[in-house]
Amino acid sequence: MSCFERFNPATVFIFFNCVIVSGIFTMNPVITVISLAGAVLLWIVMPGRKNKKIHIYTALMTLACMVFNPVFGHNGATVIAVVNNHNITVEAGLYGLFLGFMLSAAVYWFASFSKIMTADKIIYITAFISQKAALVITMALRFIPLYLNKARQINNTQKALGLYKDETIVSRVRGAARVLSVLLTYMIEKTIITSDSMAARGYSARRRRNFSLYSFGAGDIVFLAVSVIFTACTVYASSKGALVYDFYPYADVPSTQPLALTGCVGYGVLCISPSIAEGGSRLKWRYLKSKISHSDIRLPIR
Fold first, then answer.
1. Is the pTM of this model over 0.85?
2. Distances from the Cα of 224 to the Cα of 39, 64, 82, 221, 266, angstroms
3. What is the pLDDT of residues 215-239, one digit of tens each?
């Protein structure tokens, strides 16, 4: 498990919301490139097996956006070709390129989110909003595969009894009706047993304490503070218009005003903060490992 994965799920969830929401509602090329770089870096530094084909998919998606946007969008003043009386402009190509970058960044961020935020972490976060909703989601996640497996078992039993020997539509409909009837009976019985079991364990009590494997420590406070502060810098700069960028009719030069630089730097620190945490954890581990390997360990002689 990586250092970033050991944070409280609420901290990780807030970070992903901050970084995605801050970067997806602006087409500023600097913000887009920073978002893509931070997402790719996090995907690379995360331990464990990863889908390497994601790089090919995002590259093809970016190329497709860069090629097809000038074909269907003819805005822009710098014409490089005319096809069937339609202008192919540089600005449309640049817009498609950075649109592909933004979509690729979203793919990497959501891929990292799905890898880090497992089902138990999602349920843990849902419990903050409503414990009953978290309980319903947990039971649904448990019962859906259980009932599908049970339906498969009932269907195989029906086949073993020879009830599908007539390969006709009427026979199949009757067999499906029998499977559904048995499955509904099983579901009702299972639901009653589960309800009685939960009542016996105190689920109907008003005051209950919930057990959780996740805790909120000092590292979560620091990381959450970093996420909120630098997100506020980016949102403030964007609200003041410092990060506004226009591709048409001519592509603007990114602003170098102090407020724009503050928003870009803040967003950059926000994007690379999990990679920095992961890198610092690895450096610390290597340092401690080197101290252990170079230490003079003497075992007592008996």
1. no
2. 18, 37, 51, 5, 14
3. 788 888 888 888 899 999 888 888 8
